[in-house]
Amino acid sequence: MNRILDLIYGYVEILVQGENPERFLNLCKNRKIYMEKIRYTDDDRLTAQIRATDFRRLGPIRRKTGVYIRIIQKQGMPFFFFRNRKRKAFFAGLLLAGVLIFVMTGRIWNIHIEGNVRNSTETILDFLKEQGVSHGMSKKKVDCSEIAASVRRKFSQVTWVSARIEGTRLLLEIREGISRKNIKEDTAACDLTADKAGVITEMVVRSGVPVKKPGDICKKGDLLVSGELHIMNDSQEIVRKEYVHADADIYISRKISYYQEFPMKYQAEESVGKVRKGVYLRFGCFYLGLYRTAGQNQWCMMEEYPLRITENFVLPVWFGKTKMREYRKTEKLYTEKEAVREAGRIFRIYEKKLLESGTKITENHVRTDITGQSCVTKGTLQIVQKVGKNRVILTENE
């Protein structure tokens, strides 16, 4: 902290020479003139660091002790401004930069959204833009509580929203859950029917009366769990009927077909020449850079980094780097190994999508064959997947 104050007020490094330097230091101490970094060079000489404002008070002490004082170095803001007093454009630039920073601190330059899964960030940003919330708007116009409420009203899957401002960033923390539109549906009386045909392998019923059991064959549309409960008396006669929302986890095993075909000839892009690199600055939609635009038979990869002063003070300026290289298209022919490898890659993508949807593959009867100018992959898969579709029960009152 003292170092910062010294730079603000300015300080000088002095050389004191005389017969009584100790008396000079004692008088300075009595008059509360503080010195730092005092070093003796020989018997009658010493160097010290003193603030510029205290240096002017050394005149009476110098005359009283008869020492000689010489300034070795001057440092700090007062001396810097004095040395550069003729550089008006420099100080005008500093003033303009300060004004720009002050103005930019009063605006939102980054809208950060986290916690969203079902609703993409772009969708939420487009909605906020429709509500008048966008990058570059004044922080005074931002109503965090209204923003949170409007997001909850617009997106039914959103159960909780927190909006707050940190620096020049608007932070939205979102939690998603069951759609409020489905809450009423989840409590309404309904049956559970099969939306696919297969053999039931597992059945866990939480609510309702099971109609099928593991090992049974079900067709599409068959009733699996009934939401109608029969209340019986001692004579096993139906006294009344009650209706619940049927709920169960039901898995079936079924066969599906797989077919994929692609030609053995394909177009390949081969890079030619050297990679050309460039840099640019982006101000909103305006680009200022030292790079060539991509032409025909050229690919260009761009990377952007937002400029920021602090973690939350993001500037509306992006620094970017480009990599550009020419390519030429050539016609190639898969070898048998390459074709089988490509077919396997395509099948793994399909398999990954099945696994992501909760489907398990129990048997794989898929094979790849080269037929003429094509590579054909076909066969069947035995899968286990969850089934069940709600069917609303219309009671007598309805």
Helical percentage: 25-40%
User: What is the name of the CATH class of the largest domain?
Assistant: Alpha Beta
Please tally the helical runs, counting DSSP H or I stretches of 4 or more residues.
10
> How many domain units?
5
Cα Rg: 39 Å
Main β-sheet: number of strands, strand sense, barrel status? 5 strands, antiparallel
Which of globular, elongated, flat, extended, rod-shaped describes the shape?
elongated
Structural class of the secondary structure composition?
alpha+beta
Number of strands: 22
> Beta-strand percentage?
over 45%
C-alpha end-to-end distance: 79 Å
Q: Spatial order of the strands in the main sheet?
A: 11-9-15-21-20
CATH fold node name of the largest domain: Alpha-Beta Plaits
* Low-confidence parts: 180-185
Oligomer: single chain
CATH architecture of the largest domain: 2-Layer Sandwich
Report the mean per-residue pLDDT as an integer. 83
Task: Provide keyphrases for this structure.
alpha+beta, Alpha-Beta Plaits, Ubiquitin-like (UB roll), 5 domains, 5-stranded antiparallel β-sheet, 4-stranded antiparallel β-sheet, elongated
Helices, strands, pairings?
Blueprint: H1 2-9, E1 11-17, H2 21-30, E2 36-42, E3 45-51, H3 52-55, H4 59-65, E4 68-75, H5 77-83, H6 88-104, E5 110-114, H7 121-130, H8 144-154, E6 158-166, E7 169-176, H9 180-187, E8 190-193, E9 198-207, E10 209-210, E11 217-218, E12 223-226, E13 228-232, E14 238-243, E15 247-263, E16 265-283, E17 286-290, E18 298-308, E19 314-333, H10 336-356, E20 360-371, E21 374-387, E22 389-392
Parallel strand pairs: 5-7
Antiparallel strand pairs: 1-3, 1-4, 2-3, 6-7, 8-12, 8-22, 9-11, 9-15, 10-12, 13-14, 15-21, 16-17, 16-19, 18-19, 20-21
